[in-house]
Design a protein that fits this description.
Blueprint (H helix, E strand, L loop, with lengths): L1 E3 L2 E3 L1 E4 L1 E2 L5 E6 L5 E5 L3 E13 L2 E8 L4 E7 L5 H12 L4
Length: about 100
């Protein structure tokens, strides 16, 4: 488990932004809370609204705290094998 600025993470992903709002990384904490690395290198809380998996790719759609929308592409080769596995497991579990 990683510790980043007091935010205990179970998963940290390198992302490619697909929207005008820039996001270069996403991290997930226990309990399903997400943060995005946006703008000039600051972390922002976000909610995961939608996601898809297709082979070595995952698409994630987030809504930031200020209402900004972020769409990101996550590629398996850019992640550690453990983080990629954790993401796949998280996305396959039903959300309540």
């Amino acid at each position: 488990m990683n510790w980043c600025n007091g935010f205990s993470t179970t998963l940290t992903l390198q992302c490619r932004s697909l929207s005008l709002a820039r996001c270069t990384a996403a991290r997930r904490a226990p309990g399903g809370r997400w943060q995005l690395l946006v703008g000039h290198g600051h972390w922002q809380h976000a909610r995961l609204n939608a996601a898809w998996l297709a082979g070595p790719c995952a698409g994630l759609a987030f809504e930031g705290a200020a209402g900004s929308r972020y769409k990101v592409l996550v590629l398996a080769p850019a992640q550690s094998p453990d983080d990629w596995r954790r993401l796949r497991v998280h996305l396959k579990l039903p959300r309540t």
